Amino acid sequence: MKKRVMIALVVLVALAGAAYTVGSCKLIGTGKVGVQYSYKGGVKDETLNPGLNFINPFLKVKEFTVGNEQLILTKDKREGSEKNEAFKVATADDASISVSFQMSYRYNPEKVVDTYKKFKGMDGEDIVEQRVRTVLKSKVSEVTTDYTMMDIYSGNRSEINNKITDYLNKEFGSAYGIEVLDASIIDVHPDEKLKEAIDNRVTALQQKQQAEAEQEKIKVEAETKLIEAENEAAVNIAKAKGEAEANKIKSASITDELIRMKEAEARKKHGWVTVQGADTVVTDSE
Question: Which of 127, 210, 277, 285 is most buried by its number of CB atoms within 10 A?
Fold first, then answer.
């Protein structure tokens, strides 16, 4: 009988020890850290690293992502969302346009304890789902209100996304201890009214560009004609100068000595003649 009691006690002790051991083990997922707390002792400053950790079984643990995570809000669930989670943002020209959005983020490991103290009872996922999502749309709109609908639809999207990333990193870092690595409008979904407005603006822009191209063409043609006229005038001037110079040289070559020589040659050949300058007409006096 005593032997059975002893065996039972050993088994109970072993089970209690096993239970204590299991309760003292906490597995922290890859890319996460654990914040330890108890209702009586409060939050411990030391966090738990990824892997198996042995802790006081009376402590509770909340996990926070310190590896890269993504928040995806898109129109089509095939793009990441489970349902249509696209949202509307405001623009500088008082429009409202629906966008698909994604954000890469992580919790700052040096701030997770303070973040937990601030949002007591919530882990990293709770904060993103219940706090970040509720303000995300308005925060993005605070950036897009500096840009027109056409800027967002077909403009320099990379510039806008860089501004959104910097702004959310500043805002969420201060409020939630979250580092925003990248935030991007990945697609735009205009309704029929906005599509018509966009088409009209695109058409107007194309017409403007065509008109500017025509004006530039006319300008180039006018400049070309002017250059051609100037070239032609220069050629004529050069030609006239050349002719004048040739006449000058020709006139300078007709000397009195040359005239007398020509008269002598004419008398010898034709009899008496008179030579008068460069336009001499030789006549036979016989």
Answer: 127
